[in-house]
Design a protein that fits this description.
The complex is a heterodimer of chains A (112) and B (113). Chain A contains no helices and 9 strands. By secondary structure, chain A is mainly beta. In chain A, strands 1-9-8-3-4 form a 5-stranded mixed beta sheet, with no helix packed on it. A 4-stranded antiparallel beta sheet of chain A has the order 2-7-6-5, with no helix packed on it. By secondary structure, chain B is an all-beta fold. Chain B is built from no helices and 11 strands. In chain B, strands 2, 4, 5, 6, 9, 10 and 11 form a 7-stranded mixed beta sheet that branches. In chain B, a hairpin with a 2-residue loop joins strand 9 and strand 10. Chain B is globular, with a radius of gyration of 13 Å. The chains are: A mainly beta (112), B mainly beta (113).
Chain lengths: 112, 113
């Protein structure tokens, strides 16, 4: 399982863009990069997934450089409700029996 | 989208008793489900992989006789914490994969008193 490294915490203010970078130096060729969000006392929620270059959906963008050894989750114009823990995971996308290994995650705190 | 339902949301039990937690995939079939445990301020730790129709596989250090897993159908996996003790108090979360993504249940807060 590819190991991931993220900052432990990040602080931001409402309306700002938050960028969280995750390092995954040992990512395998078949691995996808997936980000999850977790609020206290809730299960993680899928945010975005990508393999290379850039992926964008209605809540976030994911930037992946050519070497795929890192990725950056971008949250545009955060609000107080974006305060949560964000996890970066790598694994095989199409295998539903692939075990997900969670790192420490990044606690994002958004202030008014 | 895929929905995983977990029940109960919270449970308080006496030390020495057993507690069963259910995990259901509501709109898809899941041959494989996963069980995690999360202590306060910590990340999720994978406990076991639940396989429909066969024995679960446990991660190193997880007592299989204490955490009984049954995956009798394609939509239901159960985790039973047997002879629970206060140190088993934790947040238990299940997940299932579908279409290349993983969906998590809302979690079960277990408190053993």
């Amino acid at each position: 399982l590819a190991k991931t490294t993220q900052p432990i915490s990040m602080d931001s203010y409402e309306g700002q863009e938050v960028n969280i970078t995750c390092s995954h130096n040992n990512i395998a060729t078949n691995d996808y990069i997936t980000w999850y969000q977790q609020f206290p006392s809730q299960g993680p929620r899928f945010i975005i997934q990508g393999y290379k270059t850039k992926v964008t959906n209605e809540v976030a963008s994911l930037f992946i450089p050519a070497d795929r050894k890192s990725s950056t989750l971008s949250l545009p114009r955060v609000s107080l409700s974006d305060t949560a823990v964000y996890y970066c995971l790598v694994g095989v996308r199409r295998s539903n029996d692939y075990k997900l290994s969670f790192g420490a995650g990044t606690t994002v705190t958004v202030r008014a | 989208g895929a929905v995983v339902s977990q029940h109960p949301s919270w449970v308080i039990c006496k030390s020495g008793t057993s507690v069963k937690i259910e995990c259901r995939s509501l709109d898809f079939q899941a041959t494989t489900m996963f069980w995690y445990r999360q202590f306060p301020k910590q990340s999720l730790m994978l406990m076991a992989t639940s396989n429909e129709g066969s024995k679960a596989t446990y991660e190193q250090g997880v007592e299989k006789d204490k955490f009984l897993i049954n995956h009798a159908s394609l939509t239901l996996s159960t985790l039973t914490v047997t002879s629970a003790h206060p140190e088993d108090s934790s947040f238990y979360i299940c997940s299932a994969g579908e279409g290349g993504g993983y969906t998590f249940g809302s979690g079960t807060r277990l408190t053993v008193v």
